[in-house]
Amino acid sequence: MTFFADIQNKELMHSTLRRERKGFYNSDELVRQAGTPDVAPFEILASCSIIAAVNSSEKFTEALDSPTRAIYLLMGTPLTLPDMLARARDRSKVCLVNIDFLEGLSRDRHAVEFLAAHHVDGVVSTRFETLKAAHTLGLITVQRTFAIDSAAVTAVLRCLAQFLPDAIEVLPAMAAPKVALRLGNTYPSLKIIGGGLIENVKEIEDLLATGIHSVSVSDERLWLI
């Protein structure tokens, strides 16, 4: 089944997902405002083949209008983030923030609490201590890692032994299948996301065909589902 032929099946899956959490959260049920998805955010994220990676306010607006149901915010300040998160929630988008890219916020627990107070769905970071804080607040956690060589992948394994996030984003995306092979046996429930240097639909199809769960893409032309 091709990437495009799979679209209808994914939409059917979206409609049958249940509201109950399935072990990805450890906090009480969050109160969602009207207009937000009636399923747990991680379930939506896990069913998204493409995540829109946004690094400007213009692209954020385009992501809101795109078919993809998940957004990575790679920008923002304490002044702009509350409005952006509210807009994403109103459009039924699952919104994760890469805390390493934010301006005006550190990467400590207080920053994570600020994001949680404004109803962010999850946190992306290279720092497992930051992700630990996000986990205790019931947020989706995605560890971002650069698989530049075998030593880097070994370092990831050491980090995962200390804290297991909900997902790991591997950069560049083309390295994700190899990393998945090394992690799959030890961490079978860990979701693998490929990010970076994706240029066309064929590359997305090839990555998903290897078993990668999803890809994060900054090119708005590829925000197809």
Task: Describe what you observe in this structure.
This protein has helices at 7-16, 41-47, 57-65, 81-90, 109-117, 128-136, 150-162, 176-184, 201-209, and strands at 50-54, 70-73, 94-98, 122-125, 140-146, 167-171, 191-195, 214-217. The chain is of the alpha/beta class and 225 residues long. The chain has one domain: Alpha-Beta Barrel (TIM Barrel). The chain has an eight-stranded parallel beta barrel with strand order 1-2-3-4-5-6-7-8, surrounded by eight helices. Strand 4, helix 6 (128-136) and strand 5 form a beta-alpha-beta unit. It is globular.
Question: Could you write a compact summary of the structure shown?
Answer:
The chain has helices at residues 7-16, 41-47, 57-65, 81-90, 109-117, 128-136, 150-162, 176-184, 201-209, and strands at residues 50-54, 70-73, 94-98, 122-125, 140-146, 167-171, 191-195, 214-217. The protein has 225 residues and is an alpha/beta fold.
**Which word captures the global form?**
globular
Q: Beta-sheet strand percentage?
A: 15-25%
Major sheet size, sense and barrel closure: 8 strands, parallel, barrel
Q: Roughly how much helix do the residues carry, as a percent range?
A: 25-40%
The overall pLDDT, averaged over residues, is: 85
**CATH-defined fold name:** TIM Barrel
Draw up the topology in text:
Blueprint: H1 7-16, H2 41-47, E1 50-54, H3 57-65, E2 70-73, H4 81-90, E3 94-98, H5 109-117, E4 122-125, H6 128-136, E5 140-146, H7 150-162, E6 167-171, H8 176-184, E7 191-195, H9 201-209, E8 214-217
